[in-house]
Amino acid sequence: MISRAVNPGARVLVVGGGYSGLRFAGAAAARGAQVWLTHRRESLEAQRATEAFSWLRFDAEVGAIPELPEDLTHALITLPPNAGGTDAALLHLLEPLRRQPLLWLGYLSTTGVYGDSQGGWVDETSPTQPSLPRSQARLQCEQQWLGSGLPVQSFRLPAIYGPGRCPFEQLRSGKARLVHKPGQVFCRIHVDDIVGTLLHATDQPAGKQPAVINVSDNAPCPSSETLAYAAHLLGCKLPAVQRFEAIAPEMSPMALSFWADNRRVSNALLCHELGYQLRYPSYREGFAASLAEEQRGNSPGA
């Protein structure tokens, strides 16, 4: 049987050189895979000189469409739809990918596709009723990838955090806001558990690769709780509590959208049925590790 794992024989394309894509590319390369990573920047000489993978320029808005390497075995799509709801990877790379001998293609989606469950639990069998336009667009793109005929798995992600993506700098600068909205919880996942999940998924035999997987930690909770723990780690004071209804009129539409949905995301499929062990079961372990990495000066770029 041919191994489907991201292993030394793998040839991996990562579409999107942002926070999660860069972290996954580094982990796949560390396994010995040959990795290509797309990015929109024209000049990447510094990265090329220091990273263990190759860069391809992919900027659909200016017509920079890469010619893909041959014999790719794995691909990861991290790009979100653009403001118009178009998935540039679907538009420009789907047909070239269909000509590759792919064993696996991962698509990074969002738990926003479930919409608002008023704080109730959702799992992979829950109806998808996205309320936000960006989540509606992501669901449409997810469905197109799943229906593409390629060996696709979609990974639905909540808020992503990790080194450089925790509230430490906001607390230090005095820009953090301690907002209270009764009953509101948020789910989150450390970037390294996204990477761990993806690698774990590629290691599974075909019969244990479900089309959709929720990737969330064990601790849905209010944002005030995570901010308080971040302040504890820094040894600094929290800002004054602000009630959501009092400050909502001054929030931007984007900021308000983060408070529009309220749900708890189950990871039972990932952690119990598929056997993945979270590296950071809650924000407590994840924040502490992220702060330590930031202090070592190893925080990844956005």
Topology of this protein?
Elements lengths: L10 E5 L3 H12 L3 E6 L5 H6 L3 E4 L16 E4 L10 H11 L5 E7 L10 E2 L10 H14 L5 E6 L1 E3 L6 H6 L4 E3 L7 E3 H13 L8 E3 L8 H12 L6 E3 H4 L5 H6 L5 E2 L2 H6 L9 H14 L6
Parallel strand pairs: 1-2, 1-4, 2-3, 4-5, 5-7, 6-13, 7-11, 8-10, 9-12
Helix pairs in contact: 1-6, 7-11
Q: How would you summarize what this structure contains?
A:
This protein has eleven helices and 13 strands. With 302 residues, the chain is α/β, with parallel strands linked by helices. The protein has a single domain, classed as NAD(P)-binding Rossmann-like Domain (Rossmann fold, 3-Layer(aba) Sandwich).
Can you walk me through this structure?
It is a single chain. Helix 1 (about 20-30) packs across helix 6 (about 190-205) and helix 7 crosses helix 11. This protein has a single domain, classed as NAD(P)-binding Rossmann-like Domain (Rossmann fold, 3-Layer(aba) Sandwich). Helix 2 (about 45-50) links the parallel strand 2 (about 35-40) and strand 3. It has eleven helices and 13 strands. The protein has helices spanning about 20-30, 45-50, 90-100, 135-145, 170-175, 190-205, 225-235, 245, 255-260, 270-275, 285-295; strands spanning about 10-15, 35-40, 55, 75, 105-110, 120, 150-155, 160, 180, 190, 210-215, 240-245, 265. By secondary structure, it is α/β, with parallel strands linked by helices. The strands form four sheets. Strands 3-2-1-4-5-7-11 form a seven-stranded parallel beta sheet, with helices on both faces.
